[in-house]
Structures are given as C-alpha cells and as structure tokens.
Design a protein that fits this description.
InterPro entries: BACK_BPM_SPOP, BPM1-6, BTB/POZ_dom, SKP1/BTB/POZ_sf. The protein is built from eight helices and no strands. The chain is 64% helix and 0% strand.
Length: 135
C-alpha cells in the first residue's frame, strides 16, 4: 500500500475525538464510558455510527445503534431515525418507527427540527411512517 511509505495519513471526514474512540474500539472491542466522551454522547455515537459504516465495522455499528436507542426520546427520535436511514441500520430504523406508533408521539415529533431534516433527506419515510401510524 502507498500509505505504508507515507509518514502521515490524513483521514477525511472524521474528527480527532471520534477517531480516538474508533481506534480505542479497534484495540479493546469496547466503547469508553459516556462520561469519557468528548461533547454530547449522542452526537459522538452518531459520528461513530458514520465512521463504523464507512469503515465496515459492523460490531461497532450495532453498539452505536444500541447506544442511540438508549437515548431515544420525542426530541431525538427523528434525528436517530435519520442516522439509521443514512447509515443502513435496519434494526434501529424499525425501532424508531415503532416508537412513533407505540408512544403515539407522531404529532409531537413532526414539530422537531430533526423531523424536518429527516423528511428533506428521505421523503419516502413519510409514507412509511403514515402507514405504521395509521395502522
């Protein structure tokens, strides 16, 4: 590989704090405790999910999806669903859609910024949500 001869490799689209956690995971197969993460744990798990998807680290992807699900709320479910759709997390996506139905919170969620971003990026999600909420 050409990188083996280089003294420095630049990784695009990954923040140093995210890369540090990613590297730690690669060596330990563990995530650090939430209180050791830089910034918001939810944001960190969203960034880690993106990195895990990009580098095909399925176990890390599953662990991030679990952490995001632990923190789901009315305010966060649309953003979590956005991540699930963007990074191909079918199980997390299904849980988020079920959350809309089970908690009967659809009318509250549609008023969040996360929902607006979700629908702008994935317009087809509206039909899927309507089908589940109406059922």
């Amino acid at each position: 590989m050409a990188e083996a001869k280089m003294s420095r490799i630049t990784l695009e689209e990954i923040e140093p704090a995210v890369f540090k956690v990613l590297l730690r995971f690669m060596y330990t197969d563990m995530l650090p405790p939430d209180d050791e993460l830089a910034g918001s744990p939810v944001e960190m798990y969203q960034h880690l999910l993106a990195a895990a998807d990009r580098y095909a680290m399925e176990r890390l992807k599953l662990m991030c999806a679990d952490k995001l699900w632990e923190n789901v709320s009315v305010d966060a479910v649309a953003a979590t669903l956005y991540c699930a759709k963007t990074y191909n997390c079918r199980e997390l996506k299904d849980k988020c859609i079920a959350f809309f139905v089970e908690e009967k919170i659809f009318k509250k969620v549609v008023l969040t910024d996360g929902y607006v971003q979700l629908v702008q990026k994935f317009p087809s999600i509206m039909a899927e949500l309507r089908e589940k909420v109406g059922a």
